[in-house]
């Protein structure tokens, strides 16, 4: 009798697809990537969140500050065919690579992020539960006591992302399985439990396994095909920064040596000050070596940052920034990253201006991009209102879950 088996994957150093049969480590990782892309495409109804096998492997192996491993569930198949992977659990452990010699070392985090995906044809058979138990046990074994997860919950505006039915050959799936909720387009999305679609698979699964809602995020999208006018307005608004004693600077890719120290400081503040709801924070120490390591990891993942920053004329230092992530193999979409202004420079409209001018920079550098996604905490009303001013519309709920191990 065929039985499901769970095993931790050995990740390959590189994917070898030049010969058949492929090495087992390559074949297994390709299955994981295919399943991950199937699950995201079924939710979104598009390929805006496709991750190539090469980029996913780089994301798991090239970073010093996050260590990712995969447990997979297999259903044995008859004959000489290899075992099919029908689900996986990705376990990501934040890791502090160490502080500078002249600073106090940062304690290692106690959190772990776990994400479970199961092929729709094999759900409600205990596969996800078994994978989650395995990942939780491994997290505890590695000294982590707080388990966290972020999930796609429900679409609010499928048309805004070009969502449509997804057809999957060779399975029982004929249409997407995404729950859809509605919210007035003129209103700023609010916080709270009422916006979570509790009947959706992610919420039901999380609640059944002891996870509590720790924060609500909204995923919003800006239609860049209609954003040129707003971008021009943003460009003209850069004079407001100059009046307050700031110069706006922009770049693509790595930060200059001149600004690397200030940029590392901004990233460290972002980790400490971003709205977290009930989530346990992970303290992060950022210095120039860590910044450079992050930039190298981005290059290996095929990711390029487009950044706009504000320089304080009196000090010559960067005091705020906004960045957008782009991928060479996803020309149609871009993803808003961090936006932060140091507290002593707030209240002057810099955050909105930085976001807007960076959208203008994106349009110049990537004119083929159609959509810009952003994720924001539901309690962060100021940034949600700023997004609405720039033309973003809420498209999906994105809850964060937490459980004490």
UniProtKB/TrEMBL annotation:
Domain N-acetyltransferase: 27-199
Keywords linked to the UniProt accession: Acyltransferase, Transferase
Native source organism of the sequence: Citricoccus zhacaiensis
SUPFAM superfamilies associated with the record: Acyl-CoA N-acyltransferases (Nat)
Protein name (record): GNAT family N-acetyltransferase
This protein's record includes keyword Translocase: no
One of the Pfam families matching this protein, by short name: Acetyltransf_1
CDD domains xref list: NAT_SF (cd04301)
Domain of life: Bacteria
């Amino acid at each position: 009798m065929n039985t499901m088996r769970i095993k931790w994957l050995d990740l390959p150093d590189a994917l070898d697809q030049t010969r058949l049969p492929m090495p087992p480590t390559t074949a297994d990782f390709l299955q994981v990537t295919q399943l991950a892309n199937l699950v995201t495409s079924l939710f979104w109804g598009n390929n805006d969140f496709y991750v190539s096998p090469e980029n996913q492997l780089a994301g798991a192996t090239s970073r010093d500050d996050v260590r990712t491993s995969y447990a997979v569930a297999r259903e044995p198949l008859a004959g000489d065919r290899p075992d099919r992977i029908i689900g996986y659990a990705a376990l990501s452990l934040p890791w502090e690579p160490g502080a500078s010699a002249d600073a106090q070392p940062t304690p290692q985090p106690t959190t772990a992020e776990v994400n479970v995906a199961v092929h729709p044809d094999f759900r409600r058979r205990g596969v996800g539960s078994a994978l989650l138990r395995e990942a939780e046990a491994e997290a505890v074994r590695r000294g982590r006591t707080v388990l966290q997860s972020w999930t796609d919950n429900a679409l609010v505006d499928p048309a805004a992302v070009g969502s449509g039915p997804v057809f999957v050959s060779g399975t029982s799936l004929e249409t997407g399985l995404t729950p859809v909720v509605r919210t007035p387009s003129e209103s700023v999305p609010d916080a709270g439990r009422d916006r979570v679609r509790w009947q959706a698979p992610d919420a039901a699964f999380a609640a059944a396994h002891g996870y509590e809602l720790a924060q609500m995020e909204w995923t919003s999208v800006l239609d860049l095909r209609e954003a040129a006018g707003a971008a021009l307005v943003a460009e003209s608004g850069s004079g407001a920064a100059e009046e307050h004693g700031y110069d706006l600077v922009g770049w693509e890719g790595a930060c200059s040596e001149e600004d690397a120290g200030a940029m590392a400081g901004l990233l460290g503040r972002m980790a400490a000050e971003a709205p977290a709801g009930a989530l346990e924070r992970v303290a992060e120490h950022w210095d120039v070596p860590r910044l450079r390591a992050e930039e190298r990891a981005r290059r290996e993942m095929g990711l390029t940052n487009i950044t706009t920053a504000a320089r304080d004329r009196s000090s010559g230092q960067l005091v705020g920034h906004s960045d957008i992530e782009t991928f060479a193999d996803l020309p149609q979409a871009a993803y808003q990253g961090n936006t932060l202004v140091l507290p002593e420079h707030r209240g002057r409209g810099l955050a909105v201006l930085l976001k807007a001018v960076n959208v203008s920079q994106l349009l110049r550098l990537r004119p083929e991009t159609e959509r810009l996604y952003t994720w924001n905490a539901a309690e962060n009303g100021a940034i949600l209102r700023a997004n609405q001013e720039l033309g973003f519309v809420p498209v999906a709920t994105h809850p964060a879950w937490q459980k004490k191990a």
